[in-house]
# Entry
Amino acid sequence: MIEDLQQVPQLARGCRVQARSEEEIVLLVPEGLLRLKGAGAEILALVDGQRTIAQIVETLQAQYPPEAHTQIATEASSFLASLHQRSVLLFRQP
Amino acid sequence: MTSTQQIPGPLSLVCEVTHRCPLHCVYCSNPLVMQQAEAELPTEAWTRVFTEAAQLGVAHLHLTGGEPLARHDIADLIRAGRNAGLYVNMITSAIGLSEPRLAALVEAGLDHIQLSLQDADEVLANRWAGARTHAKKLEMAALIKAQPHLAFTVNIVVHRQNLDRLEEMIALAESMGPERMEIAHVQYYGWALKNRDLLLPTREQLERSTKTLREAQERLAGRIHLQAVVPDYYARYPKACVGGWGRQLMLIDPAGRAMPCHSASIISGLAFDNVRDHDLAWLWHESSAFHRFRGDDWMQEPCRSCERKTVDFGGCRCQAMQVLDDADATDPACHLSPHHEQLIKIAEAAPAGTNTLHYRTIELLSHS
Ligand code: SF4
Ligand code: SF4
# Structure
């Protein structure tokens, strides 16, 4: 899990999002491709090297009813953490 | 799976754009008989191949060799791959790289560069590479590190003669500034097989190195992704054959032959069709070499009735061929193979010492 939500995620060098077809959005990384399902693409679209993790979560939450907020926070940060673990996302201090 | 009509296309296309290489690595995995420069596919043929690959669903293009930089048109090939919509990776020794050339490759659209490291010690590194390349490599790494958009992986190639210096090698690789590190054991095909007895690590070495790896993984987490592959001689199960024979990967050799695996030519009786005569979709779906070990119809026991057959696909066909002279056999690296002991014996009988390394030399044959 992510401890510091004030960190700013950014895609690492050589990692880019590509639409392989209308339904299939993938994240191309050096060792392969990660298929982005629904929320995955939404979350990555918010990763711009400016927003902090907390801001990304809040932006997402604002689009859904309050009862989904806890779940969104958990899912989004575990998604970001897993990409961070693979060195696909780098975290830096703002 | 007998019908291959509906199978999805490959995800990766590995292009050995040349077999020419300034190095003479003791563990080179290129076939013993290499393709001559004159037989190499020209730029336009590769360009067509990349376009067809993208149509077939390929996402990643891996430019390798030999040394891909030995081709003067390497920047054009990168551009053609990128224009086709592929993710372009290049595996290089960095020999033949310079600041302007690197800039040209990046400008052409190179996404990822992989540099291999032979040792932490300059003299030894040059020895394993059979050439004086270490210092040059570090110089080039500094230029790559400074590139803002190019992904960078350092591959550390380990074997009995350098495994005890793993910690130093990881530290050196770290200083080169990659996002990824890959620790790979030498695979014993091609030239490496000739040197197998000298390169196979001992069991104690492996145990020690596993500990070093764990520590490094923890230390580097979040900064550098460290991936390590255990040599299968000491594993319980074999490694999955690159996602299964004819399932995810297609390789094109310098002369245009389409192969399911980089060492498939050691398997007797396989015939390879050529991109000069066929398009990639035909090669993938129709070429007999791709059918040979696709699915599980070819399997013998114990694989045939084993539940792991969809996980490891019976292991490596080339290893079954090389060790058992039977390409259909269960990979002897699997502990369920009736011949597993034979492999362990080879591994444990290997003497230490470096007196008789066979360096890869150019042994050209007119192309087949
Ligand atoms: S047959 Fe062996 S060498 Fe060939 S791709 Fe499969 S695992 Fe690799
Ligand atoms: S018996 Fe065959 S399928 Fe089963 S684990 Fe061994 S190699 Fe894999």
User: Anything to note?
Assistant: The domain at 8-86 of chain A is CATH 1.10.10.1150 (Arc Repressor Mutant, subunit A). Residues 69-85 of chain A form the longest helix (17 residues). The mean pLDDT of chain A is 90. Chain A is about 35% helix and 25% strand.
